[in-house]
Amino acid sequence: MPDGGPAVEVDGLVKRFGDVEAVRGIEFSVAAGEIFGFLGPNGAGKSTTINMLCTLLRPTSGRARVAGHDVVSERDDVRRRIGLVFQDPTLDGYLSGEQNLRFHAELYGVPRSVTADRIAQVLEMVGLWDRRRDRVQTYSGGMKRRLEIARGLLHSPRVLFLDEPTVGLDPQTRASIWDYIRQLKEAEEITIFMTTHYMDEAEYCDRIAIMDSGGIVALDTPEALKAGVGKDRVQIRTADDEAAIVALKDGFGLEATVAEGAVTFSVASGEAFVPRLFAELGVPIVSVSVSRPSLDDVFMSFTGSTIRDAEASASDWMRMAMRGRGGR
Amino acid sequence: MTDSTAVSEGTEAGAPRPPLKVVRVSVPERSVRHDLRAVKIVLHRELIRFWRDKLRMVSGLIQPVLWLLVMGTGLSNLMTSGGGSGPGGEVDLKTFIFPGVCAMSVMFTAMFSAGSIVWDREFGFLREMLVAPVSRSAIVVGKCFGGALVATLQGAVIVLLAGLAGVPYDPVLLLELLGLMFVGAFALTGFGVMMAARIKSMQSFFGLMQMAMMPMMFLSGALYPLNGLPTWLTVLTRFNPLTYAVDPLRQAVFSHLDVSPALERTFNPGVSWGDWIVPVWLEVVIVFAMGVGLMGVAILEFRRAD
């Protein structure tokens, strides 16, 4: 049982696929009981990292310990102590929800005397008790995901890994999944390690690491990260974006980029800046919006683009390559 | 609460919601007992899925019935009209074909079961199995025996058609047939699982299986007796593993029939290496050993796939 050490400890972890360095020597540790989030666009190396921590991928170099055990040399010890919820579904649709859990219990060697109780408990926790005898085929996307979370918890892991737990779900279902995750943390005294590329979800984490092209560019609590930006984000739509960017640089010394179709820049006390902007820019402005720093801005200040733009440009083949490997 | 062990088992409908309490579980160290549990549950899952998929059971029947009733009847007609009181006289061709049809149906079902690994990979379930703290061998062994058992169950349905082919319903014979089918199915599932370890898509798996199974079937003696063939064909049939799975089935059937020695020689010549007739026990050993060998390769492949 918990020995007081960190739940996850990573030191100089590297993963190379041929010439591509998917993870470039990252380093961090996660305390027991934390909800720790990995935030970044697809292709940033989040899934590769999580796969190494789950013993599914062998690191090229570096060390990682999960629940007090080395992911390479003590693989089975790690596996017994972690729960996994993958990005892609891993349920057997021909079996009922309960049978899927029973299969998992037997495979993980959960003692028979507690199997039934434990299955009932996790099913109840994710609100699927009433549907336990229906085939998983008949479940909705959100229900399937909840069942996978229940299954990941079945053997009382110390660390639960959630790889994009809400990807592809509608906002309502996402919210309810988050309710479950938070309840869970209270009921199970568990460490949760998750990846996401939804900014609003990252807010739920105790700490987040921002990952970009294989490295960790920032790591702190969401509040501290946002406070660190210290500037508001201003987005303007103009008649001529090129001219506006040049004018901002020459007239105000501000670095602006086009993000989400608008000229975007950060500036201290944005509201006070807007009147000056209208007076002095010299390029007609169609609309303007000022926002307090969000995680988006944090992301932008560290990586120079918004996560959606980074997403669009992230090389898809890299993601495919990783999926292919992860599928074995 | 109850201590139920079977996956398919449920409590009575409308069972009261259990009180929500935290049940802590500790997962034991890996042990032989734990691996056996894993073998059992993987096997159990195969059975549940077979049972739930009634359509598969029925469609698995169609091909053998076609062979037996349509091809068997059609060809025996050819023999009686062509040869007059020829060798077809006393033994119905359907009877001759019956063991071959049993072998074929078992073969196809076994391959399908093995193919479920590819299916599991495509639908992600294989991952659930491969990340569990159990040995890969437990999963492969469970798959192989599960597949063999499912194929034998399908075979049992065919065996029930024995009457249509003029094969007597002798309980001893039926048990013999089932046992032999299990051994054959085991070897074929081993082969299928070995292939499935490398093949990543359903299409290529079934394409490849089709390619492997057709020649194996044609060269096995399932459809014609293996004596008096041209040398090249004789050699090919002797190298075909399926030959040694079909022949014991036929020997078993013929030992429960009352036929003249001449007919027996024509229709049930056994498998010979040169002048030596391979005994049934050796055939069974060959098939079983092959199954174990293929399963071993499959285990190695799944271990390496890390």
Automatic annotation (TrEMBL), chain A:
Coiled coil: none annotated. The keyword Metal-binding does not apply. Pfam families: ABC_tran, DrrA1-3_C. Keywords: ATP-binding, Nucleotide-binding, Transport. It is found in: Cell membrane. SUPFAM superfamilies: P-loop containing nucleoside triphosphate hydrolases (SSF52540). One of its GO terms (molecular function) is ATP binding. The keyword Nucleotide-binding applies. Residues 8-238 form the ABC transporter domain. It comes from the Bacteria. It is a peripheral membrane protein. Belongs to the ABC transporter superfamily. Drug exporter-1 (DrugE1) (TC 3.A.1.105) family. This is ATP-binding cassette domain-containing protein.
From TrEMBL, chain B:
Keywords: Antibiotic resistance, Cell membrane, Membrane, Transmembrane, Transmembrane helix, Transport. It is found in: Cell membrane; Membrane. The keyword S-adenosyl-L-methionine does not apply. It is a multi-pass membrane protein. Its main location: membrane. The keyword Metal-binding does not apply. Residues 55-305 form the ABC transmembrane type-2 domain. InterPro entries: ABC2_TM, ABC2_TM_bact-type, ABC_2_transport, Nod_factor_ABC_transporter. The chain crosses the membrane at residues 55-76, 96-119, 140-166, 172-193, 205-226, 276-300. Coiled coil: none annotated. PROSITE patterns: ABC_TM2. Belongs to the ABC-2 integral membrane protein family. This is Transport permease protein. It comes from Actinomadura yumaensis.
